[in-house]
Amino acid sequence: MHRVVLAGKGYRGPFRWSWSRDGEPVGWIRATVTLEGESSGSLALTYRCNGVPFDQSFRLEAEPCRFGGERWFAICPATGSRAAKLYSLGGAGFHARDRYRRVAYRSQRASSAMNRTLDRRNRILFKKLKGDDPCWVPKPKWMRWKTYDHWKAQLNQAEDRMNAHLAVLIGRLGRLSR
Predict the structure, then answer these.
(1) Domain of 25, in residue numbers
(2) pLDDT at residue 44 tops 80
(3) How many structural domains comprise the chain?
(4) Single residue among 100, 116, 142 that ends a domain in this structure
């Protein structure tokens, strides 16, 4: 937050960040800081998330630091709490961290053992072994044989666990159809 406010003090007009993938622009955000006195102001954010345009503004407050200077905080419009950092989750706008206190990681939201096993299998297959077919995964050039054998064994274990989960699921479906 301090960098944004300093940019607002030192530069005229809004400033903008943009990012691209493979040379194509995929997103941008523009920030405008307006100071109203020495210890208050406002921050206006204009951005596009998943193709949807957003305009959001925050009140800013400064608090003096113990050894001089000041620290700037944004006031969260949803909770009214002060935040040095603002967070955004999937197009929900920017908010203080306490708004997302109980948000879990994707792996923690996996609803069943089968989903967790499938996530583990895919992580080993795609990230560690760089393959796309669990039946035939060639050893990557840069990987040592001992490491490859370890990850291949882990992949086989995950496949076996997944097959066991599928057998249980098919058994349940068979009982339901009677």
Answers:
(1) 2-100
(2) yes
(3) 2
(4) 100
* Per-residue pLDDT at 77: 75
DSSP the chain: -HHHHHHHHHSSS-EEEEEEETTEEEEEEEEEEEE-SSSEEEEEEEEEETTEEEEEEEEEEEEE-TTSSEEEEEEPTTT--EESS-EE-TTS-EE-GGGGTTPPPHHHH--SHHHHHHHHHHIIIIIIS--S-TT--PPPTTS-HHHHHHHHHHHHHHHHHHHHHHHHHHHHHHHHT-
Q: How far apart are CA 165 and CA 123, in angstroms?
A: 18
Contact criterion met (CB below 8 Å) for 81 and 68? no
| pLDDT one-digit tens code per residue, 82-100 | 888 777 766 666 666 555 5
Q: How confident is the model at residue 147 (pLDDT cuts 50, 70, 90)?
A: very high
pTM greater than the 0.70 cutoff: no
